[in-house]
Design goal:
Strand order of the largest sheet: 1-8-7-3-4
Protein name: T9SS type A sorting domain-containing protein
Number of strands: 16
Order of helices and strands: EEEEEEEEEEEEEEEE
Distance between the termini: 38 Å
Radius of gyration: 21 Å
Shape: elongated
Largest sheet: 5 strands, mixed
Number of helices: 0
InterPro entries: Secre_tail (IPR026444)
Organism: Hymenobacter volaticus
Strand content: over 45%
């Protein structure tokens, strides 16, 4: 949804674009030969909300085996949705792929899937989250607390032109943490609480969420 870094179950706007990559060694059936053999997307398991995507398929350059579908869904209701995407090869074999997402109003900054990985950890962990302000510059703050509420470490980062998932790649260590406090002392093993706070530079809207982590050092 919207970009290739989207995570299953993440947040989108109420207008969101399906991106589908198709490949088959025998080729993709875009002619709809055979009854019901079109490329389709069904929203929320409702047969009445089936969309034929043949006209939105673009073959890859110099290839009959691969191509992409791009289709925008508009004015979706806020809340969770599921899409079933179905395609056929030229021998009339079909394949289905599902994706779930949560549509949210873009005027309110929203976070989901706030986590750190690995967790529990020894050595280093990275903080992740999904949001609904794709393309905006975001200021991110991660505060780590003891279970008694004492602040022990603060991480800060600015994410330019953010994708819907942060961090935007596996090699992005912007929100990585080594388990040490603000004085670079190793924290004791055990459970800690952290708060991820995000602010959009576009309209200064903010939101935050709390989660827990475990240090094994």
């Amino acid at each position: 949804m919207d970009n290739t870094s989207f995570v299953y179950g993440g947040i989108t706007a109420t207008n969101t674009t399906l991106l589908a990559r198709l490949f088959d060694e025998s080729g993709i059936n875009t002619a709809g030969s055979g009854i019901g053999h079109e490329i389709t997307a069904t929203l929320d398991n409702d047969p009445a909300r089936l969309t034929v995507l043949n006209d939105f398929y673009t073959a890859s350059v110099d290839s009959f085996q691969a191509g992409n579908v791009q289709y925008q869904f508009k004015d979706l209701s806020t809340g969770p949705h599921v899409l079933h995407v179905k395609a056929w090869d030229t021998f009339n074999n079909s394949s289905i792929k599902d994706i779930e997402f949560i549509a949210a109003q873009t005027d309110k900054l929203a976070l989901s899937h706030v986590l750190n990985y690995p967790n529990p950890f020894a050595g280093r962990t990275t903080f992740h989250f999904d949001h609904n302000r794709q393309g905006e510059d975001l200021d991110v703050q991660v505060q780590i607390f003891t279970v008694s509420g004492r602040l022990v470490r603060t991480l800060q980062a600015t994410i330019p032109s953010s994708g819907s998932h942060v961090p935007q790649s596996l090699n992005d260590n912007t929100l990585s943490w080594n388990g040490r406090d603000d004085f670079n002392d190793q924290l004791a093993r055990g459970v800690y609480v952290y708060r991820v706070s995000v602010r959009s530079n576009k309209d200064q809207s903010t939101t935050s969420k709390f989660e827990k982590l475990v240090i094994l050092n």
